[in-house]
Amino acid sequence: MSPLYDLDKNPPLLPKRIDRLYELANNLWWSWHEDGRRVFRSLDYAQWRTSGHSPVKQLRDMGYEKLEAAAKDPAFLELYDSVILKFDTDMSGEKAWCNQTHLQEFTKQIAYFSAEYAIHGSLPIYAGGLGVLAGDICKEASDLALPLVAVGFMYPQGYFHQRISAEGWQEEIYRQLNFNESPISPCAWPEVCGPLVPVLLGERMVQLAVWQVRVGRVNLYLLDTNVAENEEQDRNISARLYGADEEERLRQLIVLGVGGVRTLRMLGINPSVWHANEDHTAFTMVERLREEMEKGVSFGQAVEGIRASTVFTTHTPIPAGHNIFPVHIIDRYARNFWEALRIDRETFLKLGQYDGLEPGKFSMTALALRLAGQANAVSRLHGQVTRKMWHVLWPDRHEGSEPISHVTNGVHLLTWQAPELRDLCHKYLGQDLLQEQSHPEWWKCIVDIPDEEFWEVRQLLKTRLIHAIQDRAQQRWTESGISAQQVVAMGALLDPYALTIAFTRRFTAYKRPGLILSDIERLKKILNDPLRPVQIIFAGKSHPADLESKQLLRQTYLLAMDRSFQGRIVFVEDYDLHFSRDLVRGVDVWLNTPRRLQEACGTSGMKASMNGVANLSVRDGWWDEGYNGANGWAIDGYQGGGPAEEDRADSEALYSLLENEIVPMYYDRDRAGVPHRWVKVAKEAIRSISPVFNTCRMMMEYTGQLYVAAASADDFGYPGF
Fold it and tell me: Are 510 and 477 in contact (CB under 8 A)?
């Protein structure tokens, strides 16, 4: 392996008594265990913060004297020993809290492929919700001791960091990841000196280095083309996440799919189940087809063979969101595929084409659906939309009977629920949170928590969020000399006592970030009420090539700088994984306003609900299942018509809910300042959402409904061609 980085992966010098700290730092298990984080915080809190909460960097930067002092501190040693014991127990492989028969008995290897993974901010190889889901799946697989291995891309430059100019325009900044300060290591190959993995791209052979990330019991393998053996034009294939260049994007997908399969084979890993997350991963199926053909079987037999063990998850209800490439670009690389499969060009192209697709195009989702034995959408409503969208692949079936199921997404409870709130649950509900997290009966006891204690924790989380935002604004002012107006726009005047609404997600037109801003004068009356003030926090990135969403972002930012709003509209730049945890825990209301049937699922609202944050959302994606009339609010104004009518009806419904229900309820307090009606909604959000929309339930469904069937090597009658 010859990556083009200045590598020094030798561990730092540590006192023998605490010499497993570096091992712990290099396994992201600590990132979702509060005691694991506390170990590193208590070493040196200032360095913990300046390291960006990266223990690997922290340990490399710390002086030996401080480490030696910690090794002699009885309180620290007690914490250290307890965490190491818990870590070793979790790594043992025992399914400590899994009492589901199909999980206990499932021992077949699962290979999970995704284009991005959001596990912790110290490894920034993610852009948004797709990566967060993939990261949560890895964590839950570790918790449940599911035999899962994950494959993705290294992305040395990751996704961009966001800065907003004084004129409101998003600026993209790319930073090279320092491999020596990140929880990654060169892949532990079976041989002493690991090989490079070869992938043929057109006429050139590209070599891949492989990095290994330990996510509890799960190994995540990341592919990297930046090696000396590659030509300069190929070294940057894996440099950035979701680049704008179409051909470069196709090359990435080929490298991920083909290179990922070959990596697992070279590691001696032969999965029984292959789970392809979104159409970015479709070339895994093509590479496995090639492997089957090498056994001397016919093309039809090879297709049936890989279908049997393949699960494909689609996340995109919008046709424009799928990867569709011009055939003339596909032709530059696909000859290697159709020749290896012993089929002609037309037969290969038909795998990615269908009636109604623009001529001369090739759909990666169609390719995946044709080669996967089982497919699923990510919410009940998304399943209905997806079956209708892809009915064209099964024209002989009745509409609605297409073989696409759904497994509604969930979120990882230990990652997203605030420790303070979890401690409160333990105090009144017992110590079996992990064992009981998917049992609704256990969560009913949430009503027994005294309102006063519950509200005190909620206010603590909110104050922490506001301080974090103000710290960010202060830091930007210190570093860049931005204007006072920009400092206010970034949240310097946020009030911890005001009703706080968050709209924080990827900025794009279908999510309608401007819906709550559609009537400026009416909004000013709501926000600037001196007795019942309201403030709105916006955050999110626009895709570098999406000019329309950049304009929406700019309009929002300029309103945040408008003095007439008195600092009550805020835009927090560079929304990232660490900040998102503070947001879903600390705000009062989580706002979501997508156009109907365009949100596949959406998981941020689940995280908010688990923390007692009330959702205010259009009934799309997961909220269509999660809303019960008492755990938040549904924006139900739309009765039909075009987009303009939808916007008008939804904005009216949104403003009416704020004016007549939400704001009055929040400020309806007893003499001790506790809003009991509001607390009832917050508790109901936790009670109703936590046991259903978690990754424990999700992975049990994936296993019971999809993995067991895929591992049994049955065919499910997917479309021919």
Answer: no
The widest CA-to-CA distance across the chain, in whole angstroms, is: 80
pLDDT at site 276 = 98
Residue 429 phi/psi, 5° resolution?
-110, -10
What are the backbone dihedrals phi and psi of residue 59, each rounded to the nearest 5 degrees, phi first? -65, -35
The answer to whether 123 and 182 are in contact (CB under 8 A) is yes
pLDDT digits (tens, 9 = 90+) for 463-491: 999 999 999 999 999 888 889 999 999 99
Q: Quick one: which of 464, 446, 448 has its CA closest to 682? A: 446
pLDDT band for position 93 (cuts 50, 70, 90)? low
What residues pair up with 206 in beta bridges, in sequence order?
Answer: 199
**How far are the Cα atoms of 242, 508, 540, 541 from residue 545, in angstroms, in the given order?**
10, 11, 15, 11
Residues 6 or more apart from 444 whose CB is under 8 A from it?
687
Distance (Å, rounded) from C-alpha 676 to C-alpha 162?
Answer: 39
Contact 696, 437 (CB under 8 A): yes
Q: How confident is the model at residue 717 (pLDDT cuts 50, 70, 90)?
A: very low
pLDDT in tens, 329-361: 999 999 999 999 999 999 999 999 999 999 999
How far apart CA 123 and CA 53 sit, in angstroms, is 11
Instruction: Let me know: does 617 contact 641? Beta carbons within 8 Å.
Output: no
The residue length of the chain stands at 721
Rounded CA-CA distance 663/532 in Å is 7
